[in-house]
Design goal:
Length: 353
């Protein structure tokens, strides 16, 4: 073989060997990244509802169902000739006011209980709209001066007046007039019109449990709360640990219902407010007073054998009264019935002992 052919073949083999050893081969392809989803499926469905118990609006007491009926405010006499009264032990809230001649009178509110009878029922006064209008319910009374009745008519409530022939009212024969007008709340509820048939909103704010009430949490121990409002009005409340209530007395005489039950309250609220005279007059030209209840003032709550100072605020005649502690937080009452003592500012005293 020609020597030049042998050299060419040898060169070709060397080139092939060099190519194989130089790493010129194509590398394998890189796999695409893989995304793996979460292994736990997200929870489905709506968030659980908060556990808020159903309560009676005027007492804060838990119940399975609130009766869809309005509050009834009844004007009840509170003189020696009227005692013992009927049905006060079933009231959710009782407001005690001082009217003409320094006489105490009561505005008893009913919604959670149905007394068979209430009374003796007496006439309205100028301060009554500010007390009862926030319930947007029914107001029962025996009658009143034309000008005062006109004020009440503007309050937006449905009125039941004995003088106007309202159903469910009558006179008894065991007491002399005018101390003998009585009424039947169930009849008034039956006659509630479409604009006054719903349950009221809360008139005070309540804790879920008595142990969380404002006076219990931050108050000072007390055994007696005594009021000296007029010579005819000296209610006294004494703490009774056994029943967990404040027991009422008229001065030193225990207050009883006509059914023989001691009148008592879970909460006693003192509201100090100006007590000016109005343009109206009673017998002998005696001035008829009212209370300035729109605005703010001082007060006191007695609950659970303790008392605590509060500030009260009321935005308008038909707005409910609200109670606040010194730090501005709401002052909560214990679930149960409440008596409110409207204390004339500057002429009355409240003694806690």
């Amino acid at each position: 073989m020609n020597k030049r052919w042998i050299a060419a073949i040898a060169a070709t083999g060397l080139l092939a060997l060099t190519a194989c050893s130089s790493g010129g081969a194509t590398p394998p392809p890189t796999p695409a990244p893989v995304t793996v989803g979460p292994s736990v499926e997200p929870a489905k469905g709506s968030a659980p509802k908060p556990d808020v118990p159903t309560t009676w609006p005027l007492t804060g007491v838990a119940t399975d169902k609130v009766a869809d009926r309005p509050a009834i405010t009844v004007k009840i006499e509170n003189t020696a000739m009227a005692r013992p009264q009927t049905g006060l032990e079933d009231a959710d809230i009782v407001w005690e006011e001082i009217v003409d001649f320094g006489v105490p009178r009561l505005a008893a509110m009913y919604q959670s209980k149905t007394p068979k009878e209430v009374g003796p029922i007496r006439s309205v006064r100028p301060m009554d709209p500010a007390i009862s209008a926030p319930t947007h319910g029914l107001l029962a009374f025996s009658g009143g001066q034309a000008g005062v009745v006109a004020l009440v008519e503007k309050s937006g409530e449905q009125l039941f007046s004995n003088d106007a022939g309202a159903p469910g009212m009558y006179r008894t024969h065991d007491r002399a007039a005018p101390h003998n007008v009585y009424g039947t709340p169930s009849v008034w509820w039956q006659h509630a019109d479409a604009n006054h048939s719903k349950a009221p909103g809360p008139q005070f704010l309540f804790a879920r449990d008595a142990a969380l009430a404002a006076a219990v949490v931050g108050g000072k121990p007390a055994t007696t709360v005594a009021f000296d409002m007029t010579p005819l009005s000296r209610p006294r409340w004494t703490w009774d640990a056994k029943s967990g209530t404040w027991l009422r007395s008229e001065g030193s005489v225990p207050s009883m219902s006509r059914a023989g039950k001691r009148l008592a309250a879970t909460n006693v609220v003192s509201i100090v407010a100006s007590h000016p005279n109005t343009k109206f007059h009673a017998q002998g030209k005696a001035p008829v007073p009212t209370y300035d209840l729109v605005g703010k003032g001082t007060g006191l709550i007695a609950t659970g054998g303790k008392t605590i100072a509060v500030t009260w605020r009321k935005a308008s005649t038909d707005a409910p009264m609200r109670l606040y502690l010194a730090d501005g937080s709401p002052a909560l009452l214990a679930p149960g019935n409440t008596w409110v003592e409207l204390v004339p500012k500057g002429t009355s005293t409240v003694t806690v002992s």
